[in-house]
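F.,

This is the one I mentioned.
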């Protein structure tokens, strides 16, 4: 009987000792500057997909779906759900599309947009909601950096892209026109939106640095279908080449 009591006491002390040695697992604390999203077991990982429903936006969406399909639409055991919205290749469309997807508290990131004009507003909304956005098609210098020296006017924390900066396109085009084609007088036209305007402005800067002259710098409205007036201006300007950057379908 005495031995039995000793055994019970020893076992009790062992339990107390082991319990005391086990430290309570500290609660997770988010230290990321952008923020964290809580995803419980079995809940999906949600990605916003903001692409233009027409033209190259369809290709971007198909590429995203193919990539996710390689993972069987799963990440660390969680199903991946995409919230797809048409950004309509416009600043207004980017705003509407971004507002729809960020309304979901389980959204972890955004893929897109197709058009730089849509990204100027969508990236701001994304950043204000402490998310991350990655585009495979935006190329406007304004979205990242101008000449790699200072942040672009439309850059926001959390925005990244895998597409090249249009500064590279403009610099290459300016060198080709001035050095290879030996043309010194050029007219430029854009439609006022982020992509065309960024390329044209960068082209003009590099072309003038090489010694060339921009004899006409004009714009058209995105909805225009009659380009005869602006082309007549080009003809009268004395330009030897027209650098005309537009979005589809112009």
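My design for it:
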């Amino acid at each position: 009987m005495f031995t039995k009591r000793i055994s019970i006491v020893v076992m009790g002390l062992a339990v107390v000792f082991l319990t005391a040695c086990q430290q309570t697992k500290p609660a997770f604390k988010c230290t990321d500057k952008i923020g964290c999203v809580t995803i419980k077991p079995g809940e999906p990982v949600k990605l916003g997909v903001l692409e233009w429903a027409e033209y190259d936006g369809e290709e971007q969406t198909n590429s995203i779906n193919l990539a996710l399909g390689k993972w069987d639409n799963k990440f660390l055991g969680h199903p991946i759900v995409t919230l797809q919205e048409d950004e309509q290749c416009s600043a207004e469309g980017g705003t509407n599309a971004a507002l729809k997807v960020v309304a979901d508290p389980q959204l972890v990131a955004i893929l897109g947009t197709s058009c730089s004009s849509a990204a100027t507003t969508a990236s701001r909304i994304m950043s204000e909601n402490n998310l991350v956005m990655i585009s495979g098609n935006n190329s406007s210098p304004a979205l990242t950096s101008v000449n790699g020296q200072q942040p672009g006017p439309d850059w926001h924390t959390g925005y990244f892209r895998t597409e090249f900066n249009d500064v590279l396109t403009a610099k290459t085009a300016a060198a080709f026109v001035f050095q290879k084609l030996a043309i010194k007088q050029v007219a430029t036209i854009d439609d006022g939106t982020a992509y065309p305007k960024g390329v044209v402005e960068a082209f003009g800067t590099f072309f003038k640095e090489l010694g060339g002259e921009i004899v006409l710098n004009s714009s058209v409205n995105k909805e225009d279908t009659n380009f005869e007036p602006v082309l007549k201006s080009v003809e009268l300007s004395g330009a030897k080449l027209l650098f005309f950057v537009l979005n589809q379908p112009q």
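The longest helix spans residues 2-21.

Talk soon.
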